[in-house]
Here is the input.
Amino acid sequence: MVGYDPKADGRNISNFEVAVAGSVSGLVTRALISPLDVIKIRFQLQIERLSPSDPSAKYHGILQAARQMLQEEGPTAFWKGHIPAQLLSMGYGAVQFLSFEMLTELVHRASVRDPCDFSVHFVCGGLSACMATLTVHPMDVLRTRFAAQGEPRVYKTLRDAVTTMYRTEGPLVFYKGLNPTLIAIFPYAGFQFSFYNFLKHMYEWVIPGEGKKNGNFKNLLCGSGAGVISKTFTYPLDLFKKRLQVRGFEQARVTFGQVRSYEGLMDCAKQVLREEGAQGFFKGLSPSLLKAALSTGFIFFWYEFFCNLFHHKKKADS
Here is the structure.
């Protein structure tokens, strides 16, 4: 069970173990879905249409993009920015799940609402994600810069990226794109947690006898469904965030096609609508939905797996 449940069968794990489970689930998931994440970022940053009919478009499909990146940049291209991405995932997972467990328990102790309600999971999931975002946003900016750069590389190492960005763009560079990130992450994470809980109850209602027998499969399936739903609802804001995070980094993107400068969130939305049409808000949606299904499915699967592992170990020791 994700979140505090007063009716649960006494899963007594500490806050530290919750944070470790969240952190390790983030680490494992990131390693598995990194290639899709890099392709998604490339699609989001491309001004030209994602279509083979546009001769100036560098990328126009997942398989074509994968082949081209492999040919031009080698297999390591799919793990560009992997170190900051791993630090991001581990820190984010730890803070998000720990905050969520504590917030849902707080709701129960305050006797405000049932901590398993859809609305409670939505609000607590959104707040926990905002806390995690504020903690690790600089790593998200670094990850995006590494994934966005072509060859020759502007940043050779993580240390080089941090010092160069700080020197040339100032300390606030590490919080570029924070506004759309917070605006997007609250509903995105809220829907993730609330739909995950909702889909698990639906699964147990549709297949009552299978609920406890195939717990791992249920967690993976319901997590994937929650990821697809939440990503579809909030995708345009994710695209704006990525566009804003590469401001001041245009020289590294000239080999990918056209580049644009944006003054802020509203300016970015207006330019995308004017130049790329409404469909521009959903560039990279296909790899993003695939990534969301896999990442959210894996993150809940691994989190519940490690929490149960800690619980059974503690039970065996006692």
In short: The chain is about 70% helix and 0% strand. Residues 285-317 form the longest helix (33 residues). The chain has a mean pLDDT of 84. Residues 166 and 173 are 7 Å apart (CA to CA).
